[in-house]
Amino acid sequence: MNRTDIVVCGAGIVGLSTALALSQKKQNVTIIAHRYVDKPTYNDEYGSRIYAISASSQKFLERIGCWSNIPIGRLTAVIGMEIYGDAYSSMLDLSSWQSSVSQLSWIVEASEIERSLVKELIDLGVSWIDDRCSGYSDGIMITEGGKRISADLFIGADGSRSTLRDLAGVARSVKDYNEISLIANICAHGSHRSKAFQWFGEHGILALLPLPNLSFGNQLSMVWSTNQDIINCLNDINIDQQKSYIEKKLNEITCQRLGCLKIVSNEISRFNLTLERSSFIAHGMAFVGDAAHRLHPLAGQGLNLGLGDAESLCDILLSKAPNQNFGDIELLNKYSRIRSRQVSRMYFVTDALHKIFSSRFPLIKLARNYGLSFLNKAFSLNQ
Ligand SMILES: Cc1cc2nc3c(=O)[nH]c(=O)nc-3n(C[C@H](O)[C@H](O)[C@H](O)COP(=O)(O)OP(=O)(O)OC[C@H]3O[C@@H](n4cnc5c(N)ncnc54)[C@H](O)[C@@H]3O)c2cc1C
Predict the structure, then answer these.
(1) Atom of ligand 1 nearest to the CA of 183
(2) How far apart are CA 87 and CA 166, in angstroms?
(3) What distance in angstroms lies between residue 263's CA and the mean position of ligand 1's atoms?
(4) Which residues form the FAD-binding domain (predicted)?
(5) What are the structural domains, with CATH classification, of the chain?
(6) CA distances (Å), 31 to each of 17, 54, 119, 314, in order?
């Protein structure tokens, strides 16, 4: 039987950063998860798992020494954002200088963050069991390979299908949006000028996020959250036909705002979209990231919230009194209280935005387009 103070179950970005933040403060942490990181890619090769990283997440990643390892050439600062409603004239144009910040967010590949976190964890010599959690009973975790690990606190960072959460019998509420996100990198004829773009309409929600330019053109990441009708059309055709179909739709939706758009990724990834929520804590356990909540990606906030969980939980655990155990209910309740407030806000805002922008009622459509134009004028007048 292995013994440690804290187990972190799961090695996504949230689990890795939780383990790193605690280990840097000399806490006894063991990671239980398969150890896999994408190889570095070069020049015109970009992964399609892309995140918009907020200022607070950047600060946390800086604090734990991860941000500075990411090659500067793989980071794109978002200095503006154009948001369109169904009517092309209804749009909101935001810029970083209006908000008095140097950038609204950073766009970065998931693999770059993961590689940087793993490097720091290896340099620190953090204990890592390359296995998966498959059982739990009375403070002992059992892995698929038959290892038994006891700890004061088990942190579930094992994603939306968290095994640990299920083993603890923690209930979860799930709302299925009946939508799928299609993800691929694209090349645009026109320059994105470090702006992000979003189109809301009957086609769903299309987001184009700026990426570093390729040797042969301007690159963006496409996240198109769309309905089952479009997915059904794609299911009946081969990958080349899918690409042509999506490119045609993209050019229609964007009204060629960025000129002609072409998919450059070999594959188009798909994600089911759900709104999920469960308790942040259970007896001797805390949950972080998608293991505790999952949102619609329209606001690009899922990982940012997860990093907020990681930072908050680590700060609370590191502030414990010498006589307190890491699984102490007072510490766990404090974590749950702080994060519930933060996550509830984002949970309701993204769901409400989704309701407003997916509605087909003419009055709501009119109101949302008018609202976007109104906000745009208000922002312009304030400049
Ligand atoms: C289309 C789309 C676009 C998005 N864009 C953004 C964005 O721009 N910005 C943003 O902030 N968020 C975004 N998100 C949300 C973001 O992807 C998630 O919130 C984030 O990946 C959650 O990270 P995590 O570490 O909690 O979970 P995950 O990334 O799911 O990691 C969980 C880890 O646990 C491991 N694991 C699973 N089961 C076990 C087990 N039994 N034992 C051990 N290990 C296990 C897995 O292998 C995995 O490594 C987006 C989501 C979607 C669907």
Answers:
(1) 1
(2) 45
(3) 24
(4) 3-345
(5) 2-39+109-174+273-356 (3.50.50.60)
(6) 11, 26, 14, 15
Q: DSSP of 182-203, one letter per residue?
A: EEEEEEESS--TTEEEEEEETT
Three-class SS of residue 80? strand
User: How far is ligand 1, taken at its centre, from the CA of residue 210, in Å?
Assistant: 21
What is the DSSP code (8-state) at residue 348? Answer: H
End-to-end distance of the chain based on CA atoms, in angstroms? 64
CA of 161 to the centre of ligand 1 (A): 10
Beta bridge partners of 224: 182, 206
Going by pLDDT thresholds of 50, 70 and 90, the confidence category of residue 378 is low
Ligand 1 atom showing the smallest separation from residue 134 Cα: 41
pLDDT digits (tens, 9 = 90+) for 153-192: 999 999 999 999 999 999 999 999 999 999 999 999 999 9
What tokens appear for 63 in the block? 């604090």
Q: Are the C-beta atoms of residues 35 and 112 closer than 8 Å to each other? A: no
